[in-house]
Amino acid sequence: MHTSTILTSLLPLSSLALALPLESRDAPEFTLTSLSATFPYPGVYGVDEVDSFVDISLTYPDSSSANGATLTTTCGVNWPKGTTPGPTAWTPCANTALQFRLPADGWTSNTNFRVEVWETLTADGAGLDASHIIASDPGNSSNPNALMFCLQKGKFNPLTCTLTGPYGSTPETVVMPATAESARPN
Fold first, then answer.
1. Confidence band of 169 (pLDDT split at 50, 70, 90)
2. Exposure class string for 79-92: b at 16+ Cβ within 10 A, else e
3. Average pLDDT of the chain to the nearest whole number
């Protein structure tokens, strides 16, 4: 009997609570929309000397926007002929509020590395950090990091990699949730 009285008095409040908009609690995300890379490839004639590079395109939240707008930018790093590709220091992107690197703690090989992105948000150096392992694992669709397809076309050409999945047939995007940090990671 008391239960029905309590329920009856709470019902008008529930419709009011449901009518209030929920506060957005979505974590910011960086979306890697494309990746292209070339690397030297060991063949029967040794390792060819090639200009190597990793170029990425990103979509990310506009921190100055109140309506959830996004921005895009490109980032890249390269190694001249005769240099073995490997981990990199922080490098400014086309939009210099963003930097990216291929950190040593995620570099396994030319076909298995971590991409890390940093966006500076405040004058004291606080910002957003996001990263993801990108790997080439041909034919292994069960590997969640097998997002890159690499192919060498002919014995004197470099290994060319794109963000097209383990079979090289489907363009991939990589969503990288960002975490707020008080300073850029070293």
1. confident
2. beeeeebeebeeee
3. 84
- Which tokens is 147 given? 């997002």
Distance CA 109, CA 132 (A): 15
> 24-66: per-residue pLDDT in tens?
446 799 999 999 999 988 766 666 788 999 999 999 999 888 8
Whether residue 92 contacts residue 77, with contact meaning beta carbons closer than 8 Å, is answered with no
Containing H/E element for 46? strand 46-47
Dihedral through CA 54, CA 69, CA 179, CA 92, nearest 10?
40
Between the alpha carbon of residue 161 and those of residues 53, 84, 96, 100, 121, the distances in Å are 10, 16, 25, 18, 32
Element (H, E) at 37: strand 29-39
Q: Provide the residue count of the chain.
A: 186
